[in-house]
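Appendix B. Worked example

We walk through a single record from start to finish. Start with the input: the chain for TetR family transcriptional regulator, Amycolatopsis azurea DSM 43854, length 192.
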Amino acid sequence: MVVRRDGYVRAALELLDEVGLDGLSLRKLGEKLGVRGPALYTHFKSKQALLDQMAETMLDDQLAPLDDPTAMADWAEWLARRARTIRRTLLSYRDGARLHAGTRPTERAAMTPLIKPLLAAGFDEEDATYAILAISRYTLGCAIDEQQHVESDRAEDPAASFEYGLARLIAGLRADVDVANPPDLNVANLLD
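Next comes the structure step. The output line below is what the pipeline stores for this chain.
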């Protein structure tokens, strides 16, 4: 049976739903696909390399429609939609949030496309990078917490709690960029 790299990753995501992150192994993936270890190691140097690719694939399909932030008029709405999409996607897989933890793009090259809409809105590069990381880590933390607790154990609605925090984070970012970039006031118009 010939299976391509993407097929291995998709099968691994199916296996994640079946056995969870703790039960996922290259051996079990090989059994599921009917291949031996060397076939898997041709594509993935280690289990961590497979997990990294799974986390990327999990989000890529869902985030592709948001890849063009210029299609949205407002950077804050783009950022909120991105966070909601990530949360929804992580929750759609058993242990999806735990899988994704530690595999997010933190290298500057990976961050560049993500910070462009914030740079255009007036953020400097450092603030834009930290804004993306803060929203991403908040979203991931909420998803991890939600997947770790049984629904009946919750006093609050996790979705409402997430939205509340997301709105506050974005409001803070908006306030910071507005202070850093006040509107250009034409004094002549003020005198009229």
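Two observations about the output. The chain has two domains: 1-44, 60-180. The longest helix spans residues 125-148.
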